Amino acid sequence: MESSIPIFTRSSGGISAILGPPQLNPFDKLPEIQSKSCRTLLFSPDGSYLAYVNGATITLIKTDNSDTIATIENTKAYHLAFSPKSSFLMSWEPFTVSNANPQGSPNLKIYKTDGGELVKSFIQKKQVNWEPQWSNDEKLFTRLVNTDVVFYEDLNFERIVTRITGHKVASYKLSPNVGTYFILCHTLGSPGQPSFGRLFKYPNFENALANKSFFQADKVEFLWNSKGNNALLLTSTEVDKTGGSYYGKQGLHFIGLNGQTAMVTLSKEGPIYSVQWSPKNQEFCVIYGFMPAKTTIFNLKCEPCFELGTGARNSLYYNPHGNLLLVGGFGNLRGQIEVWDAIGKKKIGCCEAADSTLLQWAANGEHFLTATTAPRLRIANGFKIWHYTGSLLYEHPWPQGEELYDVTWKPYPKQAFKEPQISDKKVDGIASSQPQASKEVYRPPSARNRPTVNFKLHNEDEDAHNVGSHVGPSKAALENKKKREAKKVKQSESTEDKPVVTSGVLINLTGDPELDKKLKNIKKKLDAIEKLKIDQAAGKVLEANQLTKIEGERALLEELDRLKM
Questions:
Q1: pLDDT (tens digit per residue) in 3-13
Q2: Which residue, 293, 471, 531, 543, is most buried by CB atoms nearer than 10 A?
Q3: Please, are residues 117 and 111 in contact by the beta-carbon 8 Å criterion?
Q4: CA pair distance 13, 381, nearest whole angstrom
Q5: All residues at 6 or more sequence positions from 247 whose CB lies less than 8 Å from its CB, including other chains
Q6: C-alpha 376, offset from chain centre
Q7: Minimal CA–CA distance to 147: which of 182, 187, 202?
Q8: What is the mean pLDDT of residues 435-441?
Q9: How far is 89 from 466, CA to CA, in rounded Å?
Q10: By the 8 A CB rule, do 118 and 109 touch?
Q11: Strands across the sheet with 230-237, in order?
């Protein structure tokens, strides 16, 4: 095993590779592939094979010695996928018909990785859900044909053993179990009727182990944990008919092999940005709610057990061992990254990777890379390698005029690397060559010589805390606090802008609370009268009640003399 994990890139110039930390040198085992028509780059799940499409050719490489083991010619492959044990390579190309071939030719093809022999081909017209699904032991091979899920066994692609029919399946997902197989299906409801998520045990499709109904579910994303005993269903619609969200409407549901179902209750309104199971299978994390988004870790009872607070976040990434959790804000956010100790529930690192379109953990669980790629962003392409404590270790800006399309670490089998020992001590790194955004807060010219007023943009910001240990202020209390701070600012501004006017009358307090209160009240009225007299002398037209106050000055002075006696 290499001490440094290779990193492969696909760009407008072809394919190249370097060794990751600690070496950070060119990867000599793979010669650089010069090409302007390389469309796809993909590793097998265990990293033993590398496949790429170059023009009309698929090339298969054995990664341990970089030997080319198969070259498949005359293909228009657009997507590639490997089977779980890397025994087969699947390719999909757009389905076409012509006058000479009105029925069209098979466009979904299955090849043996060892030699590139074509094993079977199918017609798969739609690009959506094109990829067949395998059981992890490759005993089952399944495809979605119209609204039926068809099953093949023991690598016999000629005979359909059974199928799920009559349920109008829109999408499905096999569990990662071995030996005993389970399948989750999404059945679209009729107009005005709910959709369903159904859990079946292969090959009994007559009776579902669990059913979960939900409205507003045009699409469902299935998220099995790595054990295959629990799953999350992320439902979504393209449009939120209530007008509450630009992102449509989402919901999160839980289904277990024991038949348990539940809706995951989220404590903040707004979209669900990201959901991830911990590789340790005992919890899952969700980022949700209108900005600043909330980040919550839930247990297997769908109860919140830890809050990471709120912030500008929309992405979650557990490292392969599940002992580190990375939360970040990308896309229209600034690229702020926080790394948390997922066991000890504390933040141990942070950094900023602006304009990142891709983030991926290395198999060792200690390093991750961020990249700016085309076509999402066509300028300032390149990638960076980081240590989990937030130190930048390597930066590779892409040459001007070229585009970077994809960056990936070489994968390795599970348990290939020991779980890293977590430390919050930051390792040495380098300074980024990219210009950093100013941290200065903009102040308009009229406010630049005045005291700084500290405030939060969002009054509902929360810090990280264990669930139940944090009682935040009520909404009414937050509003009152906001009003008090605004009043202080206004008073501060008025004090600076206008001189304080007082009368020439002096009072001596006696120590008697009642008498002192009267003296202070008279003093206050006399000060106000003095200000009115100054305004009157300046030519300001006073109102009748203000003139009456001035006329009452003599009476106040007489009362003051009586009180002093």
A1: 789 999 999 98
A2: 293
A3: yes
A4: 13
A5: 240, 271
A6: 17
A7: 187
A8: 60
A9: 46
A10: yes
A11: 219-224, 230-237, 249-256, 261-263
